Every structure is written in C-alpha cells, then in structure tokens.
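User: Could you go from structure to sequence for me? I need the amino acid at each position, not a summary. Structure tokens:
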C-alpha cells in the first residue's frame, strides 16, 4: 500500500488512537509489529496516519491491546474502512488542508457546537458576511481564491440538509451580533438569516448579552464536534499557528464543561430569537 503524502486530520486521528491503545497496553512498536508479523516501521506508519490499516489487523491489534470497548473498536473500524470521497475533495490543492479537514469533521459529526464572541459562526453566515470576513485578511486574497473560500464556506451548510441533518447548537455573544462586518443592510440580512436558521428543529441559537453579570468567559470561543463515541469527539480552536484539532480525553472533558457553562450563561432559545429580532429592527 502506497504511503500517503499528506494524511487528513481524520486519518491522523485514527493513527493517534491506535498509538494510545498500544501505549495503554504497555507495548512497544516492535512488540506490536511482532503480533502482526510486520515491521515496526509499518506500525509507525499506521500510527502516524501515513498508512491505512485493514479491519482484520485493527481488530487483532485491539484484542492484543486488551481493549474491550466494542463500540469504540467499531468506531475505529468505521474510520479505517470508510473510503467515501466527500464534496470537499473538489477543493483539495485549491484551499488550505485545514479547511477540508474541518469540512470532513463536520460531515461525520453526530452533533456540532459553536461558541463565538466576535463573528457569527461560519455555518450560519450569509454570502456577504462570509466575503467580508474572508476578504479582510492581510495580504489580500486574489479574487478567485476569495470566491473559492466563500463558496466552500457556504457549501458547508450541507450538514443541515437532507433527511438526517446534524444537530447544531451555537452560543453567540452580543458583541458578534453588533459588529458590522458589512453595511447596515448586510448586517440586517445576516441577523435575519440567523433568525430563520434558528427556526429549524435541529438548530439552536443562544445569545449571551452584554449586561450579564459575572461573565468572564470571553476567551472561550470553540468548535466542538461529536464523534460516534465520546472518545472520538474533537474540539477545534484557531491558534497563531493555524487551526488546532484537539483530541485528548482530558481536554475534551474540559471543553464539554466549558460549553455547558456558556450555555447556562446564555438566554434561552426563545428569548435569544427575540433579542436578535430586536437588534435587526434597530438597523
């Protein structure tokens, strides 16, 4: 099997989980390789995402690692054997890999949470709003690349369509709703889109108002995607080095707690809609 030149975040996650299972079993890469009758180099390639692993080999390794969590093993097998090429593949080589990794993560998520303080979350943005955000970077993007990024962002809304849309919850601070990325008309259209989206059964929008007492969580922006099992959840945060995909169990637990705090601090969905509607009428 040819080695991958650039593993996706999902492929690297599978390798990471296989390494964690081996580490938990107290085995070296050489010892794991001996169990399969392969070289330690091949084990390293699997654990780094550079090479795939068959269902048979994955289940043999899991058994040798004394993993008894069948739901987790089945989820790993699904990651290893799913060869579906998603819509985002048409952008490969045209957009940064992190854009595609996020699209795949969203596509496979069992639910999705967003917390944002400066902008309306990407999945809820209008074309003009998205263009304003993506076009503000320095150096300025060429028009054709900006168009690609806007189109890609809008296509990500596909997770809300179809017979089984992904459950989605967004907690948005009032500051994000008041910042005018475009002019007054564009801002009004964006708030209206937000209201329309929140009417869907699978989309919940909550607002944290400025006048909330005792709120000190303004650095808590996040994206959180649920996996087939909680161990395979993923948190996403932007860093100075780029998009960071977080998958350690301890950190994921912290992010789940943090989201529940943001949820508890926000207005309920009905009051949030009234709040957004009032802001739209002020424009």
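Assistant: Here is the amino acid at each position, in order:
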């Amino acid at each position: 099997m040819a080695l991958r030149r650039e593993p996706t975040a999902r492929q690297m996650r599978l390798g990471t989980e296989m390494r964690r299972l081996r580490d938990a079993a107290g085995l070296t890469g050489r010892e794991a390789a001996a169990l399969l009758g392969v070289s330690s180099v091949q084990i390293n390639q699997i654990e780094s995402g550079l090479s795939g692993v068959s269902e048979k080999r994955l289940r043999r390794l899991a058994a040798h690692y004394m993993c008894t969590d069948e739901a987790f093993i089945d989820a790993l097998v699904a990651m290893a054997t799913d060869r579906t090429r998603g819509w985002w593949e048409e952008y490969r080589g045209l957009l940064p890999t992190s854009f595609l990794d996020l699209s795949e993560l969203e596509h496979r998520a069992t639910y999705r949470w967003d917390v944002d303080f400066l902008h309306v979350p990407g999945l809820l943005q209008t074309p003009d709003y998205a263009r304003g955000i993506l076009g503000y970077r320095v150096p300025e993007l060429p028009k054709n690349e900006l168009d690609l990024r806007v189109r890609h962002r809008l296509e990500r809304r596909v997770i809300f369509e179809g017979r089984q849309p992904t459950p989605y919850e967004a907690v948005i601070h009032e500051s994000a709703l008041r910042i005018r990325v475009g002019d007054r008309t564009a801002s009004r259209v964006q708030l209206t889109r937000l209201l329309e989206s929140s009417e869907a059964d699978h989309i919940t929008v909550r607002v944290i108002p400025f006048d909330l007492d005792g709120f000190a969580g303004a650095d808590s922006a996040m994206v959180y995607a649920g996996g087939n099992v909680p161990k395979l959840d993923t948190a996403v945060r932007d860093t100075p080095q780029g998009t960071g995909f977080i998958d350690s169990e301890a950190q994921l637990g912290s992010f789940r707690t943090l989201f529940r705090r943001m949820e508890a601090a926000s207005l309920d969905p009905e009051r949030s809609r009234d709040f957004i509607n009032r802001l739209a009428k002020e424009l």
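One structural detail worth keeping in mind: The chain has a mean pLDDT of 95.
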